[in-house]
Amino acid sequence: MVLGAVFLWPLAVSVLASLTRDGALTLAHYETVWRLYRGDVLYTIGVAAAGTVLTFAAAIPACGWLRLRAFGPVEFLLKVPLFVPFVVVGHALRVALSPHAPGLAGSWAGIALALAWKHLGLAALLLLGAFRGVDESYLEAARDVGATGGRLVRDILVPMSGPALAVSGILIFSSMLASFSIPLMMSRGGGPQMLMIDVYYRYGQHGDFATASALGVVAYLLAMGAALVYARRLTA
Amino acid sequence: MLVRLLILLLALAVPAAAATRVNVAIGADVNVVEVHKTVLGPGFAQTSKDTEFNVVGTGTGEPASRAIYTKLKAQADTGRKPWDIDVALVSMAVASQMVKEGLLHRYVPQLKNAALVKGAEVKEAFGVTVDGYVVPMFQNQIAIAYNPARVAAPPKTFEELVAWAAANPGKFGYNGIKGGVSGVGFTMGWVYWKTGQYKALTQGPFDKSKEGAIREAITALRDFNKTALITNGNAGTLDALNRGEIAMGAVWIDQLVAWKNEGRMDATVTPVLPAPGLPIYPLYLVVPREAANRDLAVRYIDYVATPEVQAKAIVEKFGWYPGVDADKVLPLISAKSRELLFKGVSAEDLAKYSRQMPIKEYHDLITLAYEEIVR
After folding, report:
1. What is the CA radius of gyration of chain A?
2. pLDDT at B16
3. Label partner for B250 (CA 20 to 30 A): which of B61, B244, B279, B311?
4. Which of A35, A102, A189 sits opposite B175 (nearest CB)?
């Protein structure tokens, strides 16, 4: 009942709005999305993918190191981004990057960097849990045959945490797909945009609820693709 | 949007005290909200005892006005009466839509200051007759701001602007059409200049055959953009100007003045209005059709439209251009305020080069062409 009221009903209204014009069924709003925003769909997927890769590139070595040598202060620092609001991250990165690297601040790479920074906390939380779930005996066995830090992470911790890493990646990727505050704070007014910015523009500037809804449905579908993989992982 | 609506709902749901409470919803920045809270509201309350003001800001830009529209439309659609907003400050686009949909009360004829409400922008907005429904709180002009240390001769025309940008790649900035209305206004000014169709685009009727000329103008803008920096918003352009990333950019004059007054902006940055001009985009005070305190709302707007109040609160305190008859307001301001107000852009420039926004059909055609051609 609650699920129906707070999730399914708004979703149904939004889907219906994206499929109707003056009470008649139409795909015109999706045609608008295809004509104007298909590049932005790919851009959004690209930025989210780059952000996810960056997040893992930083989180895996850091969490691997923390698994091998527990060190509270570093673990705390790594989790700080969990408590920093998205909009503050966007603002901080823009302020920090603009004077030194103005080209980077407003680019896809800048947005991916900010998204990665913000999601590092979540990644640390998930990865540390997974790495700590790996039995110490595997690590000791590897050490006995001469493996050191990097090899232990690469050859023992990562492969044995594969499913958890995949689920973390999907959660982080989906969150990045739907990001709004960071692109709003950082992106330029021209060139490709993240999908949520397009939703905001269609509704805010044009009052075009229907196309905004169609863009929203596309975002649902993208997130749902990732969610299906997630669900299969959970039930596998 | 949802968050804005929720804030608006919560703020308006505060239990009423014994005094009559006037709910004022402001679709503009915090400084405009503050004027109503700290200057205009208390000033009016002195003349009207037992009146208290509940002033709520709904954010910035078009979405802020749209939040107000969404709330009133929902109340109208559900048949609820009275509506819980008495006075609203909304953008030209949203006001015209609300007039078109019958959501507003035609109150201007009841004002003592009705004769001061004049100008093309109070007659028509985006092709909709808004005469009698709106009073501009202040006028907001889009202009080109420049840093005199880096721009020896500010452009007097769009031709000069294009030549300067070509000679100084990356040093002219504006925010495209997705980063705020100053970029939209620059785009409209560009199309007026390139097509030479200002009158037809602003007065209609809509003629689809003009699409070719519009798309040609936007194609030229795409080429121009290669020499320009697209910033991330109205504030982003000012920020880039202040940091020296750009030396010239399209800005709102009121925002430039506000930033300078707050010491956040290089004081030497100056606005200029190149021919054939850029749009002026007023924020309108409106009274919803079923406002609970309609008479009080009308009296409040009448107070805001008084030349003395306009001179002290709107012009001298905030550096905005007056919303009502400038001939009646400007003689009341100090020489210093006058100098600040017209530094770079004179009253004559405003008279000659202030442009209206196009009618809605052309506005949509131009922004669509921009999305398709420029990206």
Report:
1. 21
2. 45
3. B311
4. A189
Among B214, B344, B192, residue whose Cα is nearest residue B275: B192
- Can you give the pLDDT at residue A100? 83
Q: Does A195 touch chain B (CB under 8 A)?
A: no
- A67-91: per-residue pLDDT in tens? 998 888 889 999 999 999 999 999 9
Look up the CATH number of domain B2-133+282-334.
Answer: 3.40.190.10
Note the pTM of the prediction, 2 decimals: 0.80
B174, B182 contact by CB (below 8 A): yes
Chain A interface includes B230 (CB < 8 A): yes
What separation in angstroms does the CA of B104 have from each of A216, B87, B147, B282?
31, 10, 43, 17
Which residues of chain B have a pLDDT value below 70? 1-18
DSSP B217-269: HHHHHHHHHTTEEE-SSHHHHHHHHHHTS-SEEEEEHHHHHHHHHTT-S-TT-
Residue found under tokens 């949520």 = A196
Range from A53-57, A161-165, B156-160, B217-221 carrying the lowest mean pLDDT: A161-165
Q: State the pLDDT at residue B17.
A: 47
- Is the predicted pLDDT of residue A229 greater than 80, yes or no? no
A104 to chain B: which residues are within 8 Å by CB?
none
- Token pair 């031709």 is at which residue? B159
Return d(Cα A38, Cα A57) in angstroms, integer: 29
| Topology, domain B142-280+357-374 | D-Maltodextrin-Binding Protein; domain 2 (3.40.190)
Separation of first and last alpha carbons in chain A: 29
Is the ipTM above a cut-off of 0.85?
no
Q: What is the mean pLDDT of residues A13-30?
A: 92
Which segments within B303-365 are labelled E, that is strand?
321-322, 354-355
Angle between the B181-195 and B158-167 helix axes, to the nearest 10 degrees?
Answer: 110
Residue the block writes with tokens 């097509």: B195
Which amino acid, residue B241? L
- Enumerate the domain spans of chain B: 2-133+282-334, 142-280+357-374
CATH code given to domain A28-235: 1.10.3720.10
Tell me: pLDDT of A115 over 90.
Answer: yes
Interchain contact A51–B (C-beta under 8 A): no
Q: Which residues on B lie below 8 Å from A35 (Cβ)?
A: 372
Q: Say which DSSP state A192 is in.
A: -
The per-residue pLDDT for A132 is 93
